[in-house]
Amino acid sequence: MKCRIALMSLGCAKNQTDGEIMLGLLADNGYEIVPEPDDAEVIIVNTCGFIESAKQESINAILQMAEYKNNNCKLLIATGCLAERYKDDILLDLPEVDAILGTGDYDRICDAIESTFAGEKYVKTGEPDRNAPECLPRILSTPPYTAYLKIAEGCSNNCTYCAIPMIRGKFRSRRIEDIVNEARTLSQNGVKELIVIAQDTTRYGTDIYGRPSLDKLLCELVKIDGIEWIRLHYFYAEAVTDELVKVMAKYDKICSYIDMPIQHASNKILRRMARRTTKEEMTEKITAFRNAMPDCTIRTSVIVGFPGETEEDFRELYEFVRETEFDRLGVFAYSQEEGTPAAKFEDQISEDIKAERLDKIMTLQQGISYEKNKAKLGKVIDVIVEGYDEDNFLFYGRSKADSIEIDGLVYFATEDEVDAGDIIKVKILDADEYDLTGTRV
Question: Parallel, antiparallel, or unpaired for β 328-333 and 172-173?
């Protein structure tokens, strides 16, 4: 048996799937995967580098894992977005790191370990547009009944605040047959819920099929036996087609869950962000979803404090959130990312104003979320069981309206046997801003 390896993955689900493939490759090549770093001879930190707080978290994680080099750990490897974006800084300031792999190179993890043990300072970055081979092994880090399904890599939208195109390259779709084969394998291994991800799922297929083809992909995924829920993340309003809305409304397997980050509602700010939509178009697409799927859950995220955001611009965003009544909403203070056009804008907003505006939107959304949850009292909903809360003596899980880790939970009482991954019906009896409580029926 080769040496023992632990992996810490930070950041988004797309980074997480890269980490799962690294684990699969390592296991296939005879390495032993261990859950705790103090048992590992090799530690991999799969970093995030999206915004300043994520970069700092990644650096802190590298430094924390470097402490284990005083014990069993012989190699410390940095992979992922921070490694891709700040290779030179890592080489200069973090000598504890023995090897570096960028976002286009995670499938070379075994070469990195073997070469580093042989005495080479292994560094592979600068190819963010490189695609890893298809059909690579994968070890899930999610619960066994849920898996992310990455359908594309990179992004070509080039929003002025975002470093993703620099870090992960231009938008590249996978072929439908490759995605379906992976989904079928996941189903055969017990996965019931697929969470379809890309930086922009609504543009899926435009680069290889000549038109947005998410609707075509979904029509194939719903045919897979064993897959009971299909959840979609990261829509862009301007890329939502009538065909996509119709397909989502047609199939019960597809969760009526629309994750569509709008980022702002002032057309002036949207233009400065280089977003390709308007407030009016966003309203039109939200209305289309709600007309086709009256029970749909719409999740969004917004950025406050973007350069040049006046009090009037913020008020327009605030009113849009109030009037639209999103079911789920996340708020981010603008992060000035080096290398992006917006970082050079002169009219930057102070951190105090950003924090004040963030708090106002979050307070507004808490009230909206509470009213939305109260409207579910007395209703019976499907819930995928996740575990048991020993403090409250209740089981818990997620509804079709709740994605893993980012949304709320449904707590429930039952006298029957239930296992993680079971999909059951729960009658809702109580609600707060984020979670629901009920009983199995």
Answer: unpaired
